[in-house]
Specification:
This protein has about 350 residues and is α/β, with parallel strands linked by helices. The protein has one domain: TIM Barrel (Alpha-Beta Barrel), CATH 3.20.20.150. It has eleven helices and 13 strands. The protein has an eight-stranded parallel beta sheet, with helices on one face. The chain has a three-stranded antiparallel beta sheet with strand order 9-10-12. Strands 1-13 form a two-stranded antiparallel sheet. Strand 3, helix 3 and strand 4 form a beta-alpha-beta unit. Helix 3 packs parallel to helix 4. The longest helix has 26 residues. The protein is globular, with a radius of gyration of 21 Å. The N and C termini lie far apart (about 45 Å).
């Protein structure tokens, strides 16, 4: 083995050892009351199995998980339920809404989630980002119509199985639009999955978004974000809790006061910054009611919170380094949740 390969191997071993030591420290620390969303570990294969993901997140000291079921078989759902109970962890299940014509396996998924012991469900109307998916107001209006059809098909199933579903503000609905949508249906089984960082991309103030959606909170995607200007707008990057621009303590208190039983689930996606091209014409195609004040307020927020160093570029790192950074970021977030946000429990 030459010197270069030796140093490379030694560095990898040292990195793995440090990661293992961090996991041992997490296991010995007080457990968090925060859960983990499967998207926090999209690089690590532990997220590919519901049962393995439960074990993996337990090793980090998490209180629960929000995850998709990798099988709808009743016997598998029973195994998931037993595993969560043995680990003293809660389960929330990610589901896909019915298709506009009622198709899909929504009913079967909700039934399996109920059998597995899920406390709540999470879904989203749009898989992508509003300003990237749609180029015209007509396209957006068709999406709105389809979303209503999907929700109408979902509600009877949710009522039958008595499972609440949180619709995420997934860079699709503005805060006002999502509140209006939830008020329209006024169902105890339809609420919000509050993502604390997403809607800065739609020029919503993050704190005011949480205040608006808190009364409807079924579940959360809890995160912190950093921002940075670029010529067509600004960039957003998920960062470990406490290292970004969000008033996390205020957000926690707001949600706890409105819906005390709502779980806080970490969504720390370790990836390259996302570009928000809010200074381009295409971005504004679906925002007839957004005026210049939203843009001015958001750009002021961005400029008032310039990062001390460039936002992290993850894709340029070696694969092993990406995997380790992903785990390290989650560990840092859970540490902050316990130490700074009061999310700690014994045992």
């Amino acid at each position: 083995m030459n010197r270069r390969n030796f140093l490379k191997t030694a560095g990898a071993v040292a990195s793995l050892a440090a990661s293992a030591e961090a996991l041992r420290a997490a296991a010995e620390s007080p457990r968090a009351t925060m859960g983990i969303v499967e998207y926090s570990f999209f690089r690590n294969l532990h997220s590919k199995s519901t049962l393995e993901f439960l074990d993996f997140c337990h090793s980090f000291g998490a209180a629960g998980v929000q995850v998709g079921l990798d099988s709808l078989d009743p016997s598998y759902a029973d195994k998931v339920r037993r595993a969560a109970a043995e680990l003293s962890m809660y389960l929330e299940v990610i589901v896909e809404l019915p298709k506009p014509d009622g198709g899909g396996n929504f009913k079967q998924t909700v039934a399996a989630a109920r059998r597995a012991g899920a406390r709540a469900l999470r879904s989203a109307c749009l898989g992508g980002r509003r300003y990237e998916v749609f180029s015209s107001l007509d396209q957006w209006k068709r999406f709105v119509s389809d979303s209503h059809a999907r929700i109408r098909h979902a509600l009877p199933v949710l009522e039958k199985y008595r499972l609440p579903l949180g619709l995420e503000n997934h860079k699709d609905w503005t805060a006002d639009e999502l509140v209006a949508l939830l008020k329209h249906y006024s169902s105890e089984y339809l609420g919000a999955c509050i993502d604390t960082g997403n809607n800065v991309a739609l020029l919503d103030n993050p704190t005011r978004l949480v205040e608006a959606l808190a009364p409807y909170a079924v579940t959360t995607h809890f995160k912190d974000v950093a921002v940075e200007e670029y010529p067509e707008g600004f960039k957003v990057s998920e960062v470990p809790l406490g290292q970004g621009i969000l008033d996390l303590r205020r957000m926690v208190e707001t949600i706890r006061q409105a819906r005390p039983k709502t779980n806080f689930n970490l969504e720390m996606i370790t990836r390259d910054p996302l570009k928000i091209p809010c200074l381009t014409d295409k971005y504004w195609a679906t925002f007839p009611d957004r005026n210049g004040k939203y843009l001015a307020d958001t750009l002021t927020l961005v400029r008032d919170h310039k990062p001390s160093q460039p936002l992290p570029m993850v894709s340029t790192l070696p694969r092993d380094a990406q995997l380790n950074l992903e785990k390290e970021n989650v560990r840092k977030c859970l540490d902050d949740a316990r130490e700074q946000l009061g999310m700690s429990r014994a045992g």
